[in-house]
Amino acid sequence: MLIAICDDDKETAEEVLLYCERCMGSRCETVLFHDGKELLEYSGDIDLVVLDIEMPGSNGIEIKDEFQITVNLSWRLLG
Prior knowledge:
alpha/beta
C-alpha cells in the first residue's frame, strides 16, 4: 500500500508519516509532498492520500477534486 502525504507544513507531514509507518509497519510505503502541484505531477500508483486542506495556492479540496477526475482513491483531509 502506498500512502501519499501532502502538507505544506513539513513538521506536520513528518508526524503523519511517522504515524502511518508506526501503525502500518512494513505493510505500507509513504511518499511526502509539500504542495498540491507535486502530488498532481506524481506518476506512481497511490492507494491512500492524506491531504492538508489549508495550503497556499490550491487548497486541499481543490487538489482532491482535480486529482479525482482521473483516479478514484481513498482520501483523508486534514484541517
